[in-house]
UniProtKB/TrEMBL annotation:
Record-given protein name: Gypsy retrotransposon integrase-like protein 1
Organism per entry: Eptatretus burgeri (Inshore hagfish)
Gene3D superfamilies assigned to the protein according to its UniProt record, in alphabetical order: 1.10.340.70, Ribonuclease H-like superfamily/Ribonuclease H
InterPro entries xref list: Integrase_cat-core, Integrase_H2C2, Retrovirus_Pol_polyprotein, RNaseH-like_sf, RNaseH_sf
Lineage: Eukaryota, Metazoa, Chordata, Craniata, Vertebrata
GO biological process: DNA integration
Superkingdom of origin organism: Eukaryota
Length: 379
């Protein structure tokens, strides 16, 4: 190394150091500073809404709210909604319980302090922390808005965007389109073959010791002997439905085989959604020490007689045209037939709501589904 460094190298290092100092200054200046009680007190004394609210709390004059200007009335109405929780300190700082009510000029700064200095915990944790310290009208919606603009939060959020659901049309009649899937293995090593009518949602469940085509085809043939041949049978791409024997069988009886996308159970949603309560019933029977095969038949009997959430008609009624007899007395009207147009309309509404819910979940940073309005039952 030379003992006589050049002046050019020295000037370059000096300029680089100045640039680093400038960047560090900007970064330090950009970090929001912590709020102090004196700042909140000073800004509260200058905020017209806080001053008016403090006067109303002292003198119990909330009934005179209409006398104030329109600009202050909107914020005061929000404060009046929680007036029984508000108190005023000797410094004219308003508290809601133990939380400081922030003046308008400090709203954004109060939220940014929690987001920038508390480890980027995410929406739920940030709301919980803010809820324990400060409050002002609209604080939670403002927190969400600011948090969505926070680059570190956005970079680390697990937001999954899915394509809009392409809902299938309801078949024109019962037992035309069937969905088939396996459920299991059960604790006994057996499997349940689940066949669901997409029109009526009527389920057929058969027990098998193996999901091989040699075992499946005779079971399916027995079901078809009871209900007739469908037009389409929809299955996943599992081994029982990939073989030549299964393909030749459906071809011989004139049934179209439709395969869903591999590893995508949403495409075969009806049997998948039915399998959940089915397995719950079996597990409950095992826990109680009951015969799960007997309890399975009880579950199927009640499921077929219960109105479905999409069509609002019982699967048994839509498939056979009459109400099944259960342990509950029923007034039978021989002239009453299931209104197929009403069932189709209810199904379309249910699928539209489902599509909107899935779209809301994919766009929600918390992954929590939005609330939806419950549809009235048709008369």
């Amino acid at each position: 190394m030379s003992r006589h460094p050049s002046a050019f190298a020295y000037r370059s290092r000096h300029k680089a150091r100045i640039a680093d100092d400038f960047v560090n200054f900007i970064a330090a200046s950009s970090v929001p500073h912590a709020l102090t009680y004196k700042e909140i007190q000073a800004e509260s004394s200058r905020d017209p809404t806080i001053r008016a609210a403090a006067e109303m709390i002292h003198l119990s004059k909330w009934h005179q709210l209409d006398a104030y200007t329109d600009a202050a009335t909107e914020a005061l109405v929000s404060l009046r909604a929680v007036k029984d929780e508000l108190t005023v300190t000797n410094d004219d700082v308003i508290l809601r319980g133990s939380r400081l009510v922030q003046p308008a000029v400090l709203h954004t700064r109060a939220i940014v302090n929690f987001i920038a200095h508390e480890g980027h915990q995410g929406l739920t944790k940030t709301k919980a922390l803010i809820r324990s310290k400060v409050w002002f009208p609209g604080i939670y919606s403002m927190t969400e808005c600011i948090l969505r603009k926070c680059s570190p939060y956005q970079a680390n959020s697990n937001r999954q965007h899915s394509e809009p659901l392409n809902m299938s049309m309801l078949p024109s009649g019962p037992w035309q389109n069937l969905s088939t899937d396996f459920c299991g293995p059960l604790p006994t090593g057996e499997y349940l073959l689940v066949i669901t009518d997409e029109y009526s949602r009527y389920p057929v469940v058969e027990l098998t010791h193996s999901p091989s085509p040699e075992k499946v085809i005779p079971i399916v043939e027995k079901v078809f002997a009871m209900f007739g041949y469908p037009v389409v049978v929809k299955t996943d791409n599992g081994p029982p439905f990939q073989g030549i024997a299964w393909k030749d069988y459906l071809t011989s009886v004139g049934v179209l085989h439709r395969k869903i996308t591999p590893l995508w159970p949403q495409a075969n949603a009806q049997p998948e959604s039915f399998n959940k309560p089915l397995m719950n019933a079996i597990r409950a029977a095992i826990v109680q020490g009951s015969n799960w095969r007997t309890e399975l038949q009880k579950f199927l009997r009640m499921y077929r007689a219960s109105p479905h959430c999409s069509t609002l008609f019982a699967p048994h009624r839509l498939l056979f045209g009459w109400e099944p007899r259960t342990k509950i007395p029923t007034v039978v009207n021989s002239d009453t037939r299931p209104d197929e147009q009403v069932a189709c309309h209810n199904d379309a509404i249910a699928k539209t709501i489902m599509k909107g819910i899935m779209k809301g979940i994919s766009q929600s940073p918390t992954g929590n589904p939005p609330l939806c309005k419950v549809l009235p039952r048709p008369s």
